[in-house]
Design goal:
Blueprint lengths: L10 H16 L5 E4 L3 E2 L5 E2 L17 E4 L5 E4 L2 E9 L4 E5 L4 E8 L12 E5 L3 E11 L7 E7 L3 E4 L3 E4 L9 E7 L3 E4 L9 E2 L4 E6 L3 E4 L1 E2 L3 E3 L4 E2 L9 E4 L6 E4 L4 E6 L7 E4 L6 E5 L3 E6 L10 E7 L1 E5 L3 E3 L6 E8 L2 E8 L5
Parallel strand pairs: 1-4, 2-5, 4-6, 5-7, 6-8, 7-9, 8-10, 9-11, 10-12, 10-13, 11-14, 12-15, 13-16, 14-17, 15-18, 18-21, 19-22, 20-23, 21-24, 22-25, 23-26, 24-27, 25-28, 26-29, 27-30
Antiparallel strand pairs: 1-3, 28-32, 31-32
């Protein structure tokens, strides 16, 4: 279809086009909004016609697509917003999410498009607030035309990704010239779904990296190596909740917990407690380094029988490098041992009822 820029219509007709676009917005018709200036999400930075000046009073609504389309442009979100899709479609585009933000996006793309000289690089920095992405969260390389780096840096706040975290597009039509990076430094990252294909932390075509230096990761489905390198917290079901984390991989993978990191185990009953199955290719390794700890939390109102056991980790290879502390409000009430059952290596907690 032939696309004619508004400037070629002449001033009167161009004005009519803009007026029609604003009329359709007021009538609730889904539209695409482009940022044309840096600023707060709720300010006059948006237009429905690429290349034109911002339209006063225009704001993306729940059914709309919102695009950061300004080179070196930035948007700050500090209030409740809801849109169908948000994407960063310009080079060196940045989005800042701060306290007060309550965001719901159905889809999010960290980097889309390219220009003649280079790719488009986009970054999101989250320091507070909440973000929920209902379906698609892809940092880079969604299509073959998408070249560049998409990065999400979480320093605080709560992120919930109901459709999983795709560092790069997990499909044959993605771009090999893309890089997706998620840096978890603080706050909470929830990836609650265990549905195959739309869950966990995933990567496809292109380069991908999940960096973990702090904050809490709650994830039910796992597909790759995880290095809890800083003071992060791995909590299968989320703090105060019970969950099952399973490694779904064809090749052996490694979980490594650093000396300042921890694993949280919530126990609600003899049959309901956090568990991790880290097995793939008969050679996957789950390593707890000296100085790291396992935080044990008993649900309010539940007291196990003395001698009750809880097999919290099942791995192909379970490595415990030196002394691993049992911490948390209930840690002193348990003992810990590494046992082998057939090909399984198991970390077992036993309730003693009192401090050793």
């Amino acid at each position: 279809m032939l696309r004619i820029p508004p400037s070629s219509f002449g001033p009167r007709l161009a004005g009519c086009v803009i007026a029609l676009a604003m009329l359709s917005a007021s009538m609730g018709v889904a539209k695409t909004c482009w940022s044309r200036a840096s600023g707060n999400w709720d300010s006059d930075i948006w237009t429905t016609i690429p290349g034109t000046s911002p339209q006063a009073g225009l704001r993306p609504q729940a059914e709309d697509r919102a695009c950061l389309g300004l080179t070196e442009g930035s948007i700050t979100v500090a209030s409740p917003i809801k849109v169908y899709e948000y994407s960063q479609r310009a080079n060196f585009a940045k989005t800042f999410i701060v306290e007060g933000a309550q965001i719901e996006w159905f889809r999010f793309f960290g980097q889309r498009g390219r220009n003649a000289q280079m790719g488009y690089n986009g970054q999101v920095e989250m320091n507070g607030g909440t973000l929920c992405v209902k379906e698609r969260f892809i940092l880079a390389g969604y299509s073959a035309e998408d070249i560049g780096i998409g990065k999400f840096v979480q320093n605080g706040g709560i992120v919930t990704l109901e459709g999983g975290l795709f560092l790069t597009q997990n499909a044959s039509n993605g771009s090999p010239l893309s890089s997706g990076i998620y840096s978890l430094n603080g706050g909470v990252l929830n990836i609650p779904s265990a549905t195959p294909g739309i869950s966990g932390i995933r990567s496809g075509i292109g380069k991908a990296r999940f960096e973990w230096m702090g904050g809490t990761l709650n994830c039910r489905a796992l597909y790759g190596n995880l290095h809890n390198a800083g003071n992060g917290n791995f909590s299968p079901g989320g703090d105060g909740a019970v969950g099952l984390s399973i490694l779904y991989a064809q090749q052996p993978k490694i979980y490594r917990q650093g000396s300042s990191a921890k694993l949280t185990i919530d126990i609600a009953s003899a049959k309901q407690y956090d568990r991790i199955f880290w097995q793939a290719g008969d050679a996957s390794e789950f390593t707890l380094r000296k100085g790291s700890c396992i935080k044990v939390v008993l649900a309010e109102g539940y007291t196990p029988e003395v001698g009750q056991t809880f097999d919290v980790i099942v791995a192909d290879f379970l490595n415990m490098e030196g002394d691993i502390a049992l911490s948390g409000p209930s840690g002193a009430l348990f003992s810990m041992e590494r046992i082998e059952f057939g090909k399984d290596q198991i970390l077992r907690l036993t309730y003693r009822g009192k401090s050793p």
